[in-house]
Amino acid sequence: MVLLYGSFLLSIKVLSGCTYYAFAKAELNLIQSSLKIIVVIQ
């Protein structure tokens, strides 16, 4: 029972970690593309 709960918590941590990483990556791409647009405008 404890082992099951532990693996459940671990999978949630991994899942949230991956989601956070994906969001951070997307945000970074967004920042880079907006910087390129700003450079082009100037």
- Intertermini distance: 61 Å
The topology string of helices and strands comes to H
Q: Which residues sit in consecutive blocks of at least 5 with pLDDT less than 50?
A: none
Write down the overall mean pLDDT.
90
- Beta-sheet strand percentage? under 5%
Total strand segments: 0
Characterize the main sheet: none
Number of helices: 1
Return Rg in Å: 18 Å
> What percent of the residues sit in helical stretches (DSSP H or I)?
over 70%
* Net shape: rod-shaped
Structural class, by secondary structure, is mainly alpha
Question: What are the main properties of this structure?
Answer:
95% helix, single chain, 42 residues, 0% strand, mainly alpha, rod-shaped
Question: How is the secondary structure organized here?
Answer:
Blueprint: H1 2-41
In words, what does this structure look like?
Helix content is 95%, strand content 0%. With 42 residues, it is mostly helical. The longest helix is centred in the middle third of the chain and has 40 residues, at 2-41. It is rod-shaped and about 60 Å long.
